[in-house]
Amino acid sequence: MIAERAVQALAPAAPVARPPEPPVAVPAYDGPLDLLLFLVRKEGVALREIPVARICDAYLAHLRDLDEIDVDRAGDYLAMASTLCLLKARELLPRLPTVGAVEEEEDPKEALERRLLEYERFRDVSEQLGQMHLLDREVFARPEVPVSPGEQPIDPVVDSYGLARIFYELLERRAAPPPEHRVAFENYTMAERVRFVLSRLDDGAEHLLSEFWVELPSKRGRVVTFLASLEAARFQLIDIAQRIHLGAIALVGRVHSAEADLSMLAEHEHDDQEEAR
Amino acid sequence: MMHDEGENVIEFPGPVAGAPEPSGDDIGEPEGPCPPELLVLALEACLFASADPRTPVELAMALGVATIDVFDAVESLRERYLRSGSALRVVEVGDGYQIRTDARLARWVAAIRGGKPFRLSRPALETLSVIAFRQPVTKGAIDDIRGVDSGGIIRSLLERGLVKMSGRSEEPGKPMLYGTTPAFLEVFGLRSLVDLPTLRDLRPLHADDASLGAVPVVPFRAPGD
Amino acid sequence: MMHDEGENVIEFPGPVAGAPEPSGDDIGEPEGPCPPELLVLALEACLFASADPRTPVELAMALGVATIDVFDAVESLRERYLRSGSALRVVEVGDGYQIRTDARLARWVAAIRGGKPFRLSRPALETLSVIAFRQPVTKGAIDDIRGVDSGGIIRSLLERGLVKMSGRSEEPGKPMLYGTTPAFLEVFGLRSLVDLPTLRDLRPLHADDASLGAVPVVPFRAPGD
Predict the structure, then answer these.
(1) What is the DSSP string of C157-214?
(2) Is the N or the C terminus of chain A less surrounded, counting Cβ atoms within 10 Å?
(3) CB pairs under 8 A between B and C
(4) Residue of C109, C122, C150 for testing the chain B interface, max B β-carbons within 10 Å
(5) What is the rounded CA–CA span in Å between residue C59 and residue B38?
């Protein structure tokens, strides 16, 4: 494995063959900082005397324990190992006298120490978070209970007068000859239907497409109204919306019917006249 | 290069202190029986955290105790609710137990839960108007006046409590008769059905109109206007 | 052949002249204030009937009382739960109140609930801590503190709704900034981020480590701050 060889190369003192016992017992840990912190805190290894070889062995052992070598994961440890090697090198090699202006550069050991300590604070606080009483783990709230139809207040939309009027209308409608026989109902045109749809959307409210059908007894009326809605949407006079996945289709007005540019209807009107002839 | 730990986030290896192991499906089994001194509390917690009624057997399994102990614990809980002045009640629903709020508090529960009021649709209003003015009335008669099948709407009105079954007709097949409920009167602000305006009340108002459909004074803006 | 209009009954469109407007938010208004002798019970019923925390204002509106009365009623309820030996607790989470079960009963409730228990892995908790204490914070800063790539974990926390994108940093490349959500407070049972466990001061690595004098004990400022 490339990664293994690389780790070994960084620690030439380590035997190439895997030692019978891992030099440091490595618990499940989360990244090189976590392991380094473990070594420093539990093993009492002073950072200034960090035995690079031992640490690299520990890293290597951990990498071996992973189910398969993950190049990215190995990279995290390699980066840390190289930092440690740099540290070690600084400790061992005499410092070259600096020439000229002294560049203030942070001591890599101090930088590493600071990172370790900073990491430790977050690791500790995350342990505390993990011990808190989490919702749905230690403590539980009431489950969502859907509002039953009987519980929901009802908005009757109309008053008793309106209700009576609706009934009156029903009776009138029944008394009237069946609408299929009325020529006027069959005489839907695209232009007229577009105007109709627009005028119904003047209040700025959203209306379900299906509403437009309720009053249309004939298939033709419904089809033409549907096509007119598409046409109006194509010319951006209305929006077509579906608020809920697989929910009802709603039409939303974009312009007031009195102000709408209906020049596009001319073509339809022409067609309609042709057809009438 | 850093590695991606995304897959690790969901599962924590090994047992979490205090949390039980995943139970597979439905009712899990805790490691040991619930100690007697915690039994009533654990039962309360289980019922509280369940939306649907729980059977004594389900509760006994979750608590790791005998079903008879569940009965005793339910009695203790029921008694505590009554004694300590609680808003909660233990009720038997079907073959299970459920915690519910005291019926006298329904108003406040409805207020916090109600959400947006349910708006009656035009077909619902039509159906309701026929039932209101023709009650007791069969589905057949309603369909006849409306010209469409009203089955789904009648069902929904029944669920909403605006309409009730009020007997059976003497017609062949003895079809169900429908009528309005007190909730109907409340929703429309009526003291009794007598207060409903009759068609006789309406006619003078629209006498000069050829057809009611042309009258623009309707208090609703439904598509059929 | 008649068609069934059942589906149409649910929605009635648009505002209607003369009909009262829906109040805008989800809370209906009851007819009158809750009488004082029922207030604690009604509050309990309202909290019981709600899956999510309810704010004092929502409760006050539903009960028809002043917000200050809600505070008093919550205190009374909290006290009763403790006094009468209940499995339930009133907790403050985020801006609201919620009834939850006592943590000691977790085993039994988890058993009746079944399914997969809620879990947060150690890397997830670590990433969450960094985000909670350093927010708004970039992924780079999180990676820097943790020493490993946190991309997958951040994604998972985003998907679970515990973390949100809260803008872009002014750093080169304008990386995304992350912060915690209200759901984070809910899951951890916190009123606000102030209630988080304190991030303690840096601890010397070794008591005898002379070089530690050089380590500043000021809170470390991550690049994303």
Answers:
(1) HHHTTSEEEEEE-SSTT-PEEEEE-HHHHHHHT-SSGGGSPP-PPP--S-TT-GGGGG
(2) C
(3) 260
(4) C109
(5) 32
Distance from CA of B11 to the nearest CA of C (A): 6
pLDDT value for B86: 94
For B146-168, the pLDDT digits (tens) are 988 999 999 999 988 899 999 99
Closest Cβ opposite residue A157 in set C12, C101, C133: C12
Q: Which two tokens stand for residue A180?
A: 């299929």
Count of A-C CB contacts under 8 Å:
182
Pairwise CA distance, residues C23 & C26, whole Å: 7
> Is 80 exceeded by the pLDDT of residue A256?
no
B132 contacts on A by Cβ (under 8 Å): 163, 167
Per-residue pLDDT of A235-245, as tens digits, reads 888 888 877 66
Is C196 touching A (CB cutoff 8 A)?
Answer: yes
Name the nearest CA neighbour of B130 among B203, B175, B196, B53. B196
Contact criterion met (CB below 8 Å) for B12 and C117:
no
* 3-state class percentages of chain A: helix first, strand second, coil last, to nearest 5: 55, 5, 40
**What is the tens place of the pLDDT at every residue in C149-197?**
888 899 899 988 999 988 888 989 888 999 999 999 999 999 999 999 9
Q: CB-based burial of residue A267 (10 Å sphere; 0-12 exposed, 13-18 middle, 19+ buried)? A: exposed
pTM of the model: 0.58
Residue of B1, B3, B5, B97 for testing the chain C interface, max C β-carbons within 10 Å? B5
Residue whose C-alpha is closest to residue C10's, from B68, A210, B223:
A210
Which residue is associated with the tokens 């000021």? C218
| Domains defined along chain C, listed by start | 24-105 (1.10.10.10), 118-212 (1.10.10.10)
Q: Find where tokens 């002073």 sit.
A: A46
Please give, rounded to a whole number of angstroms, the shortest distance from the CA of C199 to a CA of chain A.
6
Q: Does A241 touch chain B (CB under 8 A)?
A: no
Task: Using a CB–CB cutoff of 8 Å, tell me whether B29 touches chain C.
Answer: yes
Could you tell me if C109 lies within 8 Å of chain A, comparing CB atoms?
yes
Cis omega (within 30 of 0) on the bond before C136?
A: yes
User: Is B148 in Cβ contact with C2 (below 8 Å)?
Assistant: yes
Q: Chain C contact for B2, CB < 8 A?
A: yes
The enclosing H or E element of A137 equals none
Angstrom distance (rounded) from CA A87 to CA A84? 5
Q: Which of B148, B105, B104 is nearest to B126 (CA)?
A: B148
